[in-house]
Design goal:
Oligomer: homodimer
CATH superfamily of the largest domain in chain A: HIT-like
Largest sheet of chain A: 12 strands, antiparallel
Strand content of chain A: 25-35%
CATH class of the largest domain in chain A: Alpha Beta
Helix content of chain A: 10-25%
Structural class of chain A: alpha+beta
CATH topology of the largest domain in chain A: HIT family, subunit A
Number of helices of chain A: 6
Number of domains of chain A: 2
Radius of gyration of chain A: 20 Å
Chain lengths: ~350, ~350
């Protein structure tokens, strides 16, 4: 049973369809394309892992951590023949996506850190709560190799449309904060090389987003600052969006994408901005790879407004490369982990100049 | 000119002396031993790097970052023949320590992240301030190889005495928070393999310590909880100190050392606790190396009270190993970096049971 829905248009104005399949273990598999998916599933499916996690409160950092012991057994760097993100071939081994073809696929993680229904708010002082939320994997395409830079622009437009669909559904389900992200490269702990990202839906507002919401509510206006930073910190721009090294970057060569007009999330982008976003996601990755002369390991995350954020929250997409130079990896060590203070060797204004070339 | 001072007694009750030398570039070199240092300096000295850093406020995370571009050029994995932490031989190349012998040495970092005099408080809304503070390197001994576990107990007692001397001097100089720490192993970004740690003195209270101070002020009593956690979370104990996996650990196999009686810092430890501390620093490291069957990369940090902390702050020493299992490195990736929420695969109670064996 495959249900196709027209979810809107992409940055080029083309219709985008979501075709939904529900696995026997209840997990959703979603195929995004410019047409309804025309082929039935192949039949072979993988099963959800046993066990669910919990949140525990760190009494000295005043933060919630997620405990998900089932993840210790998760798939770890399978060889090419067992790519779990590849299309399933009839008669072949099951993969995560029980279809022989697809353009862009999203499925619920079999080893989720967050899962289950929305929890009630914990009693005051409670030290434990269920790890409610949702974890999805976003497979950028059927290709086993590549990056945001090697995807076609059409595929990146689909990716942006899929993110917006996930925001819409996850907020409607009551999740408080939704984080699409990508870990790229072994230095970012990536266990599967097939190009993909992930989405975590939290049932609470994480501390970083809570701080941002406070800052925006207090009047910080990022869009207004972009103009001041243009000369010294901007690396490229397109269609109302700017790519810049934030003057307060925490990682060497950190870059952000933001719009010159205030937007709460990519769902607020107009068509020109949606198209520029799809373009720049590839251009930033390409610029890194050109500059470092190698596939650049990075962490990318979309910082959109939490569901119930107050006015003023402004959306940014943040890239944290894990290199200090071509052959030097950026490690996080004691100072950062023990104090929360980042020590930065590469000045953002210098990084911007280097990356502008 | 070498000035020797009796600074107190170590965990075994032996006198500890600090012998101070001032380099031509003004940096202090301190030798700690059970007797005044008897030999003059060798003459050859290294010079402090040019340039000083600054603090910048992250307007969305509401945190200060340290910018120290001079560090990009710092010494990077020199080969054995150029060990900058070895004793200097007369006529040989200069090292960081211009003495032909020493037991335990502390010197001011030539590539400091924090340096200079205490800064005035920044004007409200200021985004920049000088990176005031102090960075020191603690060389555990003249040996080029080894770990906290292979040092003699006498040397570890000296180390604890040296830390207490540094706390005393740095608080007297007006620094607000002092962090002795050690990054061990290449996975922690260590560029020098000669056993050593570091000390950072901050002129502000970092966010992690500010949160802890709030928690302790609100009544969190770690010493009282140790008894509840004994059965499920304790790994070993000695002389009034407990080594345990905190139930809210953020890293797999994370261990803390804490005293059963509340202490603000190691300067509050009585003689029995000082001796147990020197013992346990080695035992924890040895236990990790035995369990993982290899030198275990970790971040270790001493979480003592800030200078002006209110009542109730309790001292802990925290070890964050960087392994999930013998051959799997723990990476920090997007979730942690983008949201501040840690995802933990290894339950602390399971880790405690494993490490107790």
């Amino acid at each position: 049973m495959l249900t196709s829905t027209l979810i809107g248009t992409d940055g080029a104005g083309r219709s985008v369809y979501r075709s939904k399949h529900i696995n026997q273990d209840g997990r959703h598999v979603l195929l995004y394309a410019h047409a309804p998916h025309a082929h039935p599933p192949t039949g072979a499916e993988l099963d959800r892992a046993e066990g669910s996690g919990e949140l525990r409160r760190h009494p000295l950092r005043l933060e919630w951590n997620i405990y998900a012991p089932a993840r210790q057994d998760r798939t770890y760097k399978p060889d090419g023949a067992a790519d779990p993100l590849a299309p399933s071939q009839p008669g072949g081994p099951a993969t995560e996506i029980p279809f022989a073809t697809f353009d862009l696929a999203v499925f619920e993680n079999r080893f989720p850190s967050l899962s289950g229904a929305s929890a009630d708010a914990p009693a005051a002082g409670a030290q434990l709560r269920p790890a409610a939320g949702r974890c999805e994997v976003v497979v950028y395409g059927p290709e086993r190799e590549g990056s945001l830079a090697t995807l076609t622009i059409d595929r990146r437009r689909l990716l942006v449309a899929a993110w917006n669909d996930r925001y819409s559904e996850m907020f409607a389900a009551g999740h408080e904060f939704v984080l699409p992200f990508e870990n790229r490269g072994e230095e970012a702990g990536v266990t599967l090389h097939h190009p993909h990202g992930q989405i975590y839906a939290f049932d609470f507002v994480p501390p970083v987003q809570a701080a941002s919401a406070r800052a925006f509510a207090a009047g910080f206006d990022l869009a207004a600052r972009l103009n001041d930073w243009r000369q010294d910190f901007e690396v490229m721009n397109a269609g109302g969006l700017s790519v810049f090294a934030p003057p307060f970057a925490r990682f060497p060569f950190e870059l952000w994408i933001a719009s010159r007009a205030p937007r709460r999330g990519p769902w607020d982008y107009n068509r020109e901005e949606l198209d520029a976003f799809a373009t720049l996601l590839g251009n930033v990755t390409q610029r890194y790879d050109d500059y470092f002369g190698r596939p650049t390991p990075y962490m990318m995350s979309l910082h959109a407004a939490p569901r119930r954020a107050g006015a003023g929250f402004q959306f940014t997409t943040q890239f944290y490369p894990l290199l200090r130079s071509r052959d030097r990896v950026k490690f996080l060590a004691s100072i950062e982990q023990a104090t929360g203070v980042f020590t930065v060797d590469v000045l953002p204004e210098w990084a911007a100049k280097e990356l502008r070339r």
